[in-house]
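[RESIDUES AND BACKBONE]
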Amino acid sequence: MIPKECKRLAEVDFPIAVVSKHAAREKSIRHGHPSTLHLWWARRPLASCRAMLLGLLLPDPCDPQCPGDFREKARELLPKVQGNVGPKDEDLRKALLYFIGESSNWDHSSDRTFLEVGRGLVKAAHPEETPLVVDPFAGGGSIPLEALRLGCEAFASDLNPVACLILKVMLEDIPRHGPELAEELRKVGKEIKKAAEKELAEFYPSDPDGSRPMAYLWARTVRCEAPNCGAEIPLVRSFWLCKKASRKRALRPIVDSAWAAQRGRPAQGQVSRQGTPTTALRFEIFEPKSDEEVPPGTVTRAKATCLCCGTVLSPERVRAQLTVQRGGGDVIFDKKGNRNGGARLMAVVTLKPVEQGRNYRLPTALDYDAVRKAQIKLLEIASTPLPNSLSRVPDEPLPWQHGHRSIGSPRVYGMQNWGDYFTERQKLSLELIREILQRAINETQGMAPRIELLVLTISKLIELACANCRWEPVAECPRSIFTRHDLPATWDFAEGVCISESSGSFSQVLDNMVSNLKTIGSNWAAGQIQIADACDLPLPTHSAKLLFTDPPYYDAVAYADLSDFFFVWLKRFLPSHPLLHDPFDPFNPLVPKKEELTVTTVSSRDGVPKTKEFFERGMTQAFAEGKRILWEDGMGCVVFAHKTTEGWEALLNAMLQARWVITASWPVTTEMGHRFNARDVAALAASVHIICRPRPEEAAVGDWGSVLRELPERVGDWIERLQSEGIRGADLVFACIGPALEIFSRYSKVETAEGREVKLAEFLEKVWEVVGRTALEQILGTAEAKARNGLAGALEEDARLTALFLWTLQSTNGEGKRQK
């Protein structure tokens, strides 16, 4: 048993650079990674979770309180994956840190020897009782999964039903049912696929030459409002179809010459069944010899340019016209079945029976006829609700609030409910697949694990089967709607064919899921999963050894809003599932939002926006709950990666008010610097892992003067250490919070000589000041300059902040490398 006074490895040292390298690399791994089971936002890399868990669970062999039995067992185990360990305790510490770094390598994640050594070390450190690891914000499940793989017990809870379904499949179903789940999924999935092909064939017809469609490329449209024009403007971001070096294809608009000369207005509604205004505009597919031959798109920043007369339609008018169309994702037909507005089919991507590669053709009347048939069929079946009174297609309202801005992109463009994110043919396809799935459930008993996996597979299809997926001209496939932590409204979009055999189809998603299940494995014990509020955990007092969690990042990710995209379909696929509901409000048709600890969501248009105080109050209660469930010698680790002082102050205030002492902090690079999401979201590339312990009730009162005297040296030493590990820029700045808080948080409170209590905000101002001075010293040429003339200390706050800004720019380029 580790004495509670004994320091853990993560409190004294950690292989930052090695773990960062493996964590960042893991973000590019798709095949066989547990994250492939289903999308979840801001999921922690397994590498950093596994390494940090080892650091938290293993004692420091250099600490006098470290049990001798652990040292002996560690020296026995470590040579299995590295060379012999030296005789000194320092040698053993280095060997353990080396093992932690190497175990974070994805190539070793399923290696039997590495797992045996890791589990053996944890068992040696905790011989009397298997440690329980608790994650009350479990999300995608990286932390509890790695806890189980290291031989711990794990309790994973989340407020979000979608997260809990993912957790149940990954942490319960897979380890309990093992490798045979993959084959069972393949078997039942093939039956669903066969039935879907039969029922949906008429809505995705093959061409006369036998070619089968694999995607339809659409553009939303508006009308030019210039006098004497009125031409249709397809809203196209790019006219590229294929950008492969050996085979380039693009669309080229052709304006009727007589129209261009006369600029006359066409008769109202005169649009051919092929979607081309009868006198104004058509397209052709060509092979560009250079990029310059491809015309620019028609829409930029919501401004639409008419291809016929050159008039630019303002964003306000574009939005107004799309609002009338409820987002403009569907085709509008007249009573005779002719298209007279709405989405315009720009091209069809097909696969020929005897040829490799994609082929592109212009739309025909038959393509629009199939869409019209789908609309009629959907209208027919949607008139009858489901047995549980739900509508057959989602009619739940879109959220009113998203971050500090309205989710508004969809609402501004007329999309009012979740069904508006899908074309009517897509909604029909998903509803018919739901019916096929329900028949399979009714006909077969004991299918629960397979059905849950199958539903996650269908849910993965949904992110590729909506009217906001862009066409990727290099890979030649539809791209997931979630290219960032947002729900965008796109101008042009790719409609995949769910019954095809290629990207965007159920068959492709199913094959990927089966393949990934086989690679993921199931060599871990089952965990405990529960939908729960982190502020009220269903666990006994003093039941856990470790609280390790990655809480919401203030306003960086609107988890509840985003997950509704999946939830509205999941609850139709599994209408009686115990996890797929709001346990706190039976009248809420969506995932819980009022209780979510972010400042991104409100419950209605007239709801009160969440504030910093709400976030801080809720986090304080959550950390107090975490402290309650811990053993006396328990520890905590909180991951945070927000890049605003406001977010950090709210989190840290909550930790201090809940009476935690910060004992270490380690910034681990967990994101790729070039990620698309990095440009728009308030998240760092490095996730700061804050190590903490419950503060003793008898903690002393700190002296403000002593704290200020200790701060510069502590921060300065830490900056040098982080720079040696390759941490730069803003990541380094916020990583300095941890060691600074080590000084401040160990006291019950800090007072000035006059007896005034110093609040966290005042202390953080001093932290930024010290970091700014250190930055300036480095810019001026190290501390000797300060020693000679005291210039750094004499500069005003604005000058220090400017120096800090310049320093971060000098320290970091776009790839996180040191600038020369």
In short: Residues 180-200 form the longest helix (21 residues). The longest strand covers residues 630-642. The mean pLDDT is 86.
